[in-house]
Amino acid sequence: MKVLVIDDQPEVLKQIEKAIAAEQGIDGQPYEVAGLTDHQEALKRLEEEHFDAVIVDMVMGPEEDEGLAVLRQLADKSPITIVLTAYPSVPNCVASMRSGAWDYLEKVPADGSDPYENLLRTLTEACRHRMDHPEAGRSNPDSAWVRQHFGELIEAHGGEVIAVLDREVVDHDESYGKLMERIKKRYPVARPTVVSIPDLKVEAIE
Questions:
Q1: Beta bridge partners of 40
Q2: Chain-centre distance of CA 90, in angstroms?
Q3: Which of 30, 76, 88, 199 has the largest CB neighbor count within 10 A?
């Protein structure tokens, strides 16, 4: 599986690339990783080449909005997008998820956990979900509803994975695997939208 990492700090970029390249995807093969520091170059490459997943820094560039520009460019397209940021804030998290990000992760987690382990875990979960639901990530009413209500979902379901069907949260769990077991039994034909909700307890950065 091909992964593109975008971060304007070269040393951080190398660390992320190294962590991902050392692991195997759910297909049993090592991840194929490419890294770029320039978001315009990244957008151009994404037009020319298919990637299964894109890991992007949030705060980049003079206006500090280049990460969001990448997410918006990829909204409702096929790559899985995951934000890995050193400057977490509720507004940025909401904007990221409304632009279609699968997850919003901290480079220095408040709970002291390993950021690369967190990244690899959420990447695995996202890839597994995409394999089970190849149409996921494209525009549909439930994913649009999630983006519109992400602020409320963070408050109600922070740290959980939720399943949304017909614009309603029909199930939620801290474990992706347990949630999917129940969803497959309850909805053998319908395809709920499944989204990871970050547990973001920091206040907005002024």
A1: none
A2: 15
A3: 88
The domain locations on the chain are 2-196
Cα dihedral: 162, 165, 169, 175 (round 10)? -20
In order along its 206 residues, the chain shows pLDDT tens digits of: 889 999 999 999 999 999 999 999 888 889 999 999 988 899 899 888 878 899 999 888 777 788 888 888 887 676 889 999 988 888 889 888 888 889 999 999 989 999 999 999 999 998 888 777 655 555 577 888 898 899 999 999 999 999 998 789 999 999 999 999 999 888 875 678 899 999 876 444 43
Q: Which helix (H) or strand (E) holds 200?
A: none
Residues in the chain, overall count: 206
